[in-house]
Amino acid sequence: MNYNSGCSHLLSAIIQKLTGMSAHNYAKENLFKQIGISNSIWHDRQGISLGADGLRITSYDMLKFGNLYLNNGCLNGKQIILSKWINQSTTALFKTYDNIGYYAYHWWVSSFNNSGLEINYYFALGYGGQYIIVVPRFDLVVIFTSRMYNNSLRPMYYFKEFILKAIEM
C-alpha cells in the first residue's frame, strides 16, 4: 500500500456534503471547541478543506489532540470521541513502507524494540515533519514540529533513538 492523500481529500468533501460545513468548520464546532483549540487555519481551496494537509494549529494544540487519543477520547470525564473509534482508527490495517510500519484510519501504526521490549505506538505525520506520536504503554504523547521538507522522517529517528531508548524499562 502506498499513501494517497487524495483519499483524505475525498473524505473532506464527503464530510462537507453530509454536514453542509467544510471539514474545518465541522472540526471547529464538534472537536476543536471541546478540547480547547481556539485558533486554527485550514486551507480551503475551491470551497473544500484539503483533507490531507494544510491544517495549522499550535504545538500545544497538537498535544491536546494527542492526549485526547491517549485518553481514549475522554477529556475531563467527558467522552469527546467514542473509545471504539479511537481503537479502530489506531489499529493497523495496511502494511506500508518498511521504515514506517502500518496505516490505519489516518494514523500510522508502528513498534520499536527496546532491549527486547516491544513498544507499540501510533502517530500522525504531517508535511515537513510534523508529528503527534502516542505511546499508550508509557502514557506518553510526543510532538514534533519541523521544516524538514526533504527529510520529514528525521523526527521519527530522534523519537526512537533519543526518547524511546531513554525510557527506563
Automatic annotation (TrEMBL):
<feature type="domain" description="Beta-lactamase-related">
    <location>
        <begin position="4"/>
        <end position="151"/>
    </location>
</feature>
<dbReference type="Pfam" id="PF00144">
    <property type="entry name" value="Beta-lactamase"/>
</dbReference>
<dbReference type="InterPro" id="IPR001466">
    <property type="entry name" value="Beta-lactam-related"/>
</dbReference>
<dbReference type="InterPro" id="IPR012338">
    <property type="entry name" value="Beta-lactam/transpept-like"/>
</dbReference>
<protein>
    <recommendedName>
        <fullName>Beta-lactamase-related domain-containing protein</fullName>
    </recommendedName>
</protein>
<dbReference type="InterPro" id="IPR050789">
    <property type="entry name" value="Diverse_Enzym_Activities"/>
</dbReference>
